[in-house]
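Structure tokens please, single chain.
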Amino acid sequence: MLRLFSTTTGLIVERDGAYFPIPHALSLDALFASADPGALLQAALIEAHPTHAPTPETLRAPLQSQEVWAAGVTYYRSRTARMAESKDSGGGTFYDKVYEAERPEIFFKGTPHRVAAPGAGVRIRSDSKWNVPEPELTLAINAAGKIFGYTVGNDMSSRDIEGENPLYLPQAKVYHLSTALGPCLVITDTLPTADTVIAIEIRRAGATVFSGETTVGQIKRPLPSLADWLYRDNSFPHGALLMTGTGVVPPDAFTLQPADEIRITLAPVGTLINHVL
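Here you go.
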């Protein structure tokens, strides 16, 4: 297992507690395009000399040209939350059918310029009154559709907009800085085990106003199947990142406010920290 950090000075890999700079000739785009990203990265480490660990202020989101996509209603908790928020619009059974269907809900989430780095700000929509973060295991998939690693992501969502009409999903999900990723990519052939915990904490004025956790095992669908559906009749020459849904939803009375701090933790990725602009 390797941990790959994208920083303002280049790529840095952590292996067994030691950190190594990666030659600038090896980009994230090259890694995602490779048939075997792990082997490519290992080869780049052969002549690398140790360096210091990256500092938080130098971290970038671990992507270059990759699109970010997302799968929805993959957890039972997400199903019940979506049904509740849509009950007034008559869309409640819509999400029940998605949860039970063979075909998953997969939607476009963002391009690189819409993705916030670790430590940076995420946004809530100016035309929304009910906004929440969604902590999600996020798969790193190469151009051939192979999952070669993962990170953690924040799928910012405007619940009132989506609840008004399911067809408003793109506006509820895709806007400037509606996504955050990091702090690193875990490069491995082994997917997180079922008991792997995804945790979130939201702080306001120094106090915790919401916390919760779930496990990867609560995802209804096999992770490789989500990647297969994303790549079906589609092409990703620079690979893609796929969020796999959320199993932690704040209570209906909760909405994010400017300056809130969002902390999402997934071992061994670490903790993704962002604040609301």
